[in-house]
Write a structure and sequence with these properties.
Elements: H1 2-10, H2 15-35, H3 40-56, H4 64-78, H5 83-95, H6 99-112, H7 117-129, H8 133-146, H9 153-166, H10 170-182, H11 188-201, H12 204-217, H13 223-229, H14 234-243
Helix pairs in contact: 1-2, 2-3, 3-4, 3-5, 4-5, 5-6, 5-7, 6-7, 7-8, 7-9, 8-9, 9-10, 9-11, 10-11, 11-12, 11-14
Length: 248
């Protein structure tokens, strides 16, 4: 439980502090697994910390298939109703550009518990990667209705913004990205996607300001990085090119 608390608290911190807090959380999950190697929550928690490390490129030498997917699958095998394990699996598969598999993982978990808001939002993320923006929007809106004060509410706003962006609703996307930031979720991709939305709407001054914020948070940000490490969202990449983000 202490490990999971740290994962939620880390979301509100700058990247350096976030990495340190997740390392501490991983240590706590490892300690739990020494006591009980079959603790599904600890397996899912450790898998989550490695998923975030994969997303930001913090630990480039790790075997993420084993560290994330392997441990999430083991957690599910031990406790088929462990929603956190399905959520981690779904997010990792989508980030690693396997949206169909991500969608299947989400559907399997939601068949057990259709009211688990983070997994509904994660399914929306996979659906946007597949170009199913209306369904993505519906799923994330349902997640917000189920859990309006969720620790992941900032991420929910980003995913909803991505769906609006895919639908060409640039004003709505801009509003959702601002909602994410205002909810205490000032991550680089909230700002980068905001920059893309502004650029596609033709508001280039605002686009460049948002892009500068994104690169200030995450200096190695490039189009190449986004394509390799974030969900498949061509409208985001198109907007970022227009905003002036370098290819590499």
């Amino acid at each position: 439980m202490r490990g999971w608390v740290l994962t939620w608290q880390a979301r509100e911190q700058p990247l350096r502090e976030r990495e340190s807090m997740l390392d501490t959380a991983r240590t706590l999950f490892e300690q739990a697994l020494k006591i009980d190697p079959n603790d599904a929550d600890a397996l899912a928690g450790e898998a989550y910390t490695y998923h975030v490390a994969y997303f930001y490129g913090w630990k480039t030498t790790e075997d993420y298939e084993a560290r994330v997917l392997g441990q999430a699958n083991r957690a599910i095998a031990l406790a088929p109703d462990n929603m956190r394990a399905y959520w981690v699996k779904c997010e990792y598969l989508n980030t690693s550009r396997r949206p169909n598999e991500s969608l299947a993982a989400a559907n399997t978990g939601l068949a057990i518990n259709p009211n688990y808001a983070p997994l509904l939002a994660a399914r929306g993320n996979a659906e946007s990667s597949l170009g199913r923006f209306e369904q993505a929007k519906s799923d994330v809106q349902q997640a917000m209705r189920l859990s309006p004060r969720d620790p992941l509410i900032g991420m929910f706003h980003v995913i909803l913004g991505d769906a609006e962006l895919g639908l060409g609703h640039f004003d709505a996307a801009i509003e959702k990205y601002h909602n994410a930031i205002d909810a205490g979720y000032p991550v680089y991709f909230a700002y980068s996607n905001l920059a893309a939305a502004y650029a596609l709407e033709g508001k280039m001054d605002e686009a460049k300001t948002a892009l500068a914020e994104a690169r200030g948070i995450f200096p190695k940000l490039t189009i190449k990085w986004m394509i390799a490490h974030t969900p498949n969202l061509p409208p985001v990449f198109q907007g970022l090119r227009k905003a002036g983000l370098p290819e590499q």
